[in-house]
Structures are given as C-alpha cells and as structure tokens.
Amino acid sequence: MEFDFSDRMKGLKANAIREIFKYLSDPQMISFAGGMPNKEALPVEILSELSEKLFKDKSIYGVLQYGSTEGYMPLRQSSVDFVKRMGIDGIDTDNTLIITGGQQGIDLTCKVFLNKGDCILVEDPTYIAVLHILKTYEAKAYGVKSNHDGIDTDDLEAKIKKYKPKFIYLVPTFGNPTGKNYPLSKRKKILELAVKYGTIILEDDSYSHLRFGGEYVQSIKSLDTTGNVIYNTSYSKIISPGIRCGVCVADKEIIAKMILCKQATDVHTSALSQALCDGFLRGNYLDGHLKKILPIYSSKKSLMREAIKKYMPTDFECTNPDGGLFIFGSFKEGTDTSDYFVRALQSKVAYVNGIDFYASGDVRNTLRLNFSNSTDEQIERGIKILGDIFKER
Amino acid sequence: MEFDFSDRMKGLKANAIREIFKYLSDPQMISFAGGMPNKEALPVEILSELSEKLFKDKSIYGVLQYGSTEGYMPLRQSSVDFVKRMGIDGIDTDNTLIITGGQQGIDLTCKVFLNKGDCILVEDPTYIAVLHILKTYEAKAYGVKSNHDGIDTDDLEAKIKKYKPKFIYLVPTFGNPTGKNYPLSKRKKILELAVKYGTIILEDDSYSHLRFGGEYVQSIKSLDTTGNVIYNTSYSKIISPGIRCGVCVADKEIIAKMILCKQATDVHTSALSQALCDGFLRGNYLDGHLKKILPIYSSKKSLMREAIKKYMPTDFECTNPDGGLFIFGSFKEGTDTSDYFVRALQSKVAYVNGIDFYASGDVRNTLRLNFSNSTDEQIERGIKILGDIFKER
Fold it and tell me: Could you give the ipTM of this predicted complex?
C-alpha cells in the first residue's frame, strides 16, 4: 500500500554519521567518522566483574523487573555525586532523570519545549544529531558565529533578540565537532544572557571527563541559580556507549515534564545498564579508568596532529583540542570536502563532512576527524591516504 | 524562571499505572496494578549464564561499543525466527527494528504517521499507554465498541469511514486490559477492512506466548500480504521487562522511516540487552522457560478467580482469560471504582481503575487486576480486602 507518513518525515534523512556507520562493518575501513571510544578504553573487565556480582545479588530481581521512569534510584543518587565533578552542587535526585544515552536528553528537551515552527540557537558548527532531532519536531535551528574560544556572545545576544529561541543548545566543553573549551568568562556571559532574555540553555556535556590538557572549567549548570540550564551528560564516553545510559539534570519542574514524555517513549532506561553504571560509579572505578584512557587519547590526538602536518596539504588547518574525541579541520575556500568523500571511502578511510554540522551557512571546506577509535598505525596510514587524495585537488 | 512548555505538555498527566508505581515501593503493598511478570518467572539463572559467557567472548567489544540503530544483527536474525511462532513468515531482517521495549514501537509508529490533530481508532477499553503516547503527538483516539471476542467490526467499519484514522491500534491476543483473544475470522475481517479503506493496523502483541489455555490463533500480521500491518512485540513478558527490548516488524519502507526516528531518540537499544535476548532465543531457552512459567500464571489466574468468587460482591463480573496477565472486571452501573481506589491503597492493595483504559465513553464501574506478580497468599488476602471494601458500598 501507499503510506501516508507524517509531515515530519518529509526531508528527514539519515544523520550523516549514522549513514557512514554502515560502511564501518568493513574490517578494512579506517574510520575517523564516528565518535567511538577506543576498544582499549572499554572497561570490559570491570563491567564483567560488576555484572557477575549483580547477577548473584538479590537486587537482580529488581533490575530485571519493570522499574520507574525516573531511573534506578541508586544510579540517580550516584549521578548526583557524579555531576559534582563538573561543579554541580545543591541538587537532589528529583533534579535528575536517567536517560537512554545523552541523545535522549536532547530529544526530551525538544519534546518538552518545542512546538512545530519554534526555533533554537546553536553554535555553528554544532553536534550533528541536534539538527536531526529538531527536524522530527518540525522546528528550526539558527547558527550562531563561533570564535576560537567558542560561541560569539555578541552574535548570540543579537540572535536571541531576533529569533526568540526556545532554547540555546551548546557543547561548551570539548564541543563536538570543534573540541573548543569555553572559558569561564564566556560561560558566565552566556548564562547572563539566558537569564536576561528568559531563555533555556541546554548544556550538553559528554566530553568534560576526557580532558588530557588545559585547565578544568566548571559547567554552565554549576553557575545556574535560576533554573535556566538543563545539563545533559552521558556515561557513553567514560563507561560504554553500547549500554545507552546517561543523566539529565534540571529544574524539578522540567524533570517532571521530561518524565511524562519518557513514560511515553521507552518507559525507562535498561535497568541492567543503569545498575552497571551505578556499580562503576560507586565502585570508584572512574578515576582509575580515566587515568588509563586519557594518555591513550592524548597520544592518539598528538599522533594524528603529527600525521596531518606530515601528509595533509599545507592549506589544511586544524584544531588542537585539550580533550574530547575530535580534530576539526578546514581547507582554503573553494575546496568542498564532500567531493572527496566517496573517493576516501573507496580508499577505505571515512571522515565526516563539516557541512553536516552547520545549521546556517554553506561551509563546505571543513571536515571532522575522530582520533580515538583507530589504532596508531591506522591513524598514520589513514591520514596519509587522505593527504594523497586532497593533494590531488 | 517561568517555563514556556510546548503545547503537547498541556493536560499531559502521568499514566495512571506509572503513578501507582510510586506506591509499590511499600513492601506491604499488594499490587494488582502493574503488568509485572512474577519474580519466579524471571530467568535469572539463564541470563546470568548468558551474561557471563558474553563478557568472556570477544563479541563483548562490539556490544559495549556504539551499534547500529536498526539493532544488533544477531538479534534481528533471531527475531525473524521468533515471530514465525506467531505465523509471520517471508520476512527478512530489513523488515525488523529492535526497539527499547514494546512501547517504543507504539511511539515510533505515532512519530512516523501522526500529525497534530490526526486520529487513530482503538478498541475500548485499550492499553492505557497508547492513550498517553497519543497526547504527546497532540493526536486523538476514538474508541470502538468491544464484544466478548474482541473489537466490534461493524462499529470499526463505521468509525473508519467517519474518522479516517491514520491507524487502528489493537492488542488482539490476550489484550490488555481485557484478556480477550480475537478469533481468526475476526482477525481476517479487520485486515480486510484495513485493506479496503487503506488504513494501517498496529498489532501490539506482548502476550501471545503467555497462553495457558484455549487454542493458538495466528497473528493478523501473518495474514498481511499488502503491508498494512505493523507488528509490535516485546521480550519483556517472556525474558525481562527491565532490560527494555522488543522488536517491530513491518513493511521495509515503514521500518526505514522508523529507523530515522529512532536515530533521533535513543540512537539504538542497549546492545547488552539485545545480546542477552539473542542468547536467550538462540540458546533455545524459550520453550523450557514457558513450560516453567505458564503453569504458574495459569494457577494464579485460577486462584484469583476463586478468590473473587469467594470475596467480591455478587454484582462483580470478570473475564476468564486463557493467557496474558490480567483479569478485567465490572460492577453494576452506578459504582465508580475510583471512589474506592484511595481506600484500597490505604488498605495496601493496588488495582487500576478501568476508566483510564477508555478512549471514549465514561465507563466508571470497571477495574483491572493483575494476577501474575503477587504470591498466592497475597492474591487471597488482597482480593478479600477489596471484597470487604466494595461490599460496603
């Protein structure tokens, strides 16, 4: 039969990164595309032990049974402690909602705030998924200019006035895709603007623990005394993305609304995943695990930077992030990275075209490279292949 | 600050069953409210073994890593075999999408098909969650009359013509809340109407394996040659609800759209949950497990029926289902079960008011009783308490 799909499906295409995923099953492929943790950075031993212990404990019956939408109470409690690391204090479990990965926090924020035709502001470029999610709400994102240290607050203020956004979506710490880390002064200014204009900030923070250089900067949420900030974080990058678990912290009124919406989607996040994350946090495995994985990421970033210097054309400029998983680079104007994408895939190297990260503007000369997932040898070889391709322009 | 929530949040209240959940943490409470499997019916030993094996296998790296939105391929494959039990044949993995519990299948169907103001048809009474989910899409459900053997097909045809629904939501096998099992002739008639009027059927089937009496009836999807039927099932009731895993089977075009929407919500279902469900299915544990749990459920249903006979007022009439988890009952007109609800909770017994299951009509004299979750002693004692309360009308 002919299907009469909803309006939101018109023009909804697969998120570019998820599309590239399909090619990654090819074992020959060197992927600089996804944001996958390194295989060595997956705490298999710890999770194996935690799982074995859990299945022997009588709490397993509660874990395998239906749970509450808000989340597994032990994990809500340990999440309250966890976010103190980002300076977030003075909250209780009613300020938390356990989510099925950080992305669900974005989806629920959209569901709770956006009507069809509403708009939000994002830094340009921004996390690709937020642009995809917005389409499912028939809402629009406007891009705000970005400087070397993050979103341009003058442009932000001008666009808040112009567009009256429902919220401002930001990844202030090692932002995806650029890896920028906003200084404290900028974070304060952004919050000041949000309060002044009565706007929500959705602070998405999946990367702040993956800091291998620079100074710690507290989260925008930690500065929030008015309830303007929704703070969204994930256990994907520090424990495991495959188990889909994160936490959202916000004003209790917002959390209560999000719970109503989550009830209507997946009822609750896998309680097995929640119990494992809780065991990981309570067992104080995090610091030891970070101590193990951060040198790996730091070394891989440096290696990729060196390979870029060695192999990429001289007009290629790229970021040098102190954390996160990505290097973002650009060629001189006139180069369209998507023209070389298929050739790169044929040569068994995947990257993400920068254009997909932009809400506004037609910026075609950028690309994002993930350095965390590949072996050292793959980084060297993959960048050499890309260098050869782009040198032939 | 004052929050400017989206229109869909207006009047969105907690689903009655999820609200009752909060009271269930009281260990004294006898709950006939949720649809929870019995503790003894949770395959803890099997899952424990599967989990231990999985963590020792090299496939664990893939499980803990980001996976594809479509689902963990081994589970998509074993799900193709699984649905053959309900007569669904001739499909391949592209007809399947792994979902974070059966409820996500309803949510994704709504997302793919419904615009604000659209409507669907449901049997009256119907599964409470579908009414809640609909509100998040600002869509409306119209109730169709129900007979002793399921939805009234004359009323269904009349209402298809009148309302032009985007889809018809049905739980044809041991439907929640009434436990009715539609005969094959009715299933054929419903499909015929859907094809005639170009309507989608969302066949929600979480209970067909929980059959302890009567005859097997094949699913509506098994009769579908035109792609009109979306078939939604869950591993919650036969493996574990806490791990949130189910499968949706539909025309490839619909599945492709659902994948786009799922990308924008939780990226993918916990791969750990998926791998455990796959292990359970491939290990051929299902038949043995059903052999163990069905006599428990059958005996509990009989026990509850006997207790009802013994303790409930004589005007209370109830169903005698051959499967599923619920008995649905009604008092004579004039009794409003919600008037007695708080008193029952105070007396430490929880049930669900029938009114919450109705899309149309003001039916106040019904209630739903779950028989699977309580101990035998609790069933006897709980029904006695309810009997005492309702006898005082």
Answer: 0.96
User: Given B68, B132, B226, which is nearest A264 (Cβ)?
Assistant: B132
Instruction: Quote the CA–CA distance of A296 and A379 in Å, as a whole number.
Output: 13
Grade residue A258 by pLDDT with cuts at 50, 70 and 90. Answer: very high
Angle between helices B252-263 and A128-136 (to 10 degrees): 120
What token pair was written down for A94?
A: 């009613």
**pTM of the predicted model, to two decimals?**
0.96
A93 interfaces chain B, CB cutoff of 8 Å: no
**CB pair distance less than 8 Å for B65 and A111:** no
pLDDT, position A88: 98
Segments making up each domain of chain A, as ranges: 7-43+287-391, 60-282
Tell me if A132 and B264 make a contact (CB, 8 A cut-off). Answer: yes
Cβ of B252 under 8 Å from any chain A Cβ?
no
- A26 — pLDDT class (breaks 50, 70, 90): confident
Burial class (CB in 10 A: 0-12, 13-18, 19+), B81: exposed
Q: Determine contact: B176 vs chain A, CB below 8 A.
A: no
CATH of domain B44-282: 3.40.640.10
Q: What is the mean pLDDT of residues B294-308?
A: 97
Between A10-24, A359-373, B203-217, the lowest mean confidence (pLDDT) is in A10-24
Strands (E), chain A: 30-31, 96-99, 119-123, 140-144, 146-147, 150-151, 167-170, 200-205, 229-234, 246-249, 317-318, 326-330, 349-350, 352-353, 366-370
CA distance A2 to B166: 12
Structural tokens at position A362:
């037609």
B265 lies within 8 A of chain A by CB: yes
Query: Within an 8 Å CB–CB cutoff, is residue A61 touching chain B?
Result: yes
My answer on whether omega of the bond before A177 falls inside 30° of 0, hence cis, is yes
Is B101 close to A132, i.e. CB distance below 8 A? no
Q: Tell me the fold of A60-282.
A: Aspartate Aminotransferase; domain 2 (3.40.640)
> A323 and A212 in contact (C-beta within 8 Å)?
yes
| A residues 200-219 lying closer than 8 A (beta carbon) to B | 200
pLDDT at A269 over 80: yes
Question: Quick check: A129 and B13 CB within 8 A?
Answer: no
CATH code given to domain A7-43+287-391: 3.90.1150.10
How big is the CA angle at B333 (ends B328 and B334), to the nearest 5 degrees? 115
Q: Tokens for B216?
A: 């097997």
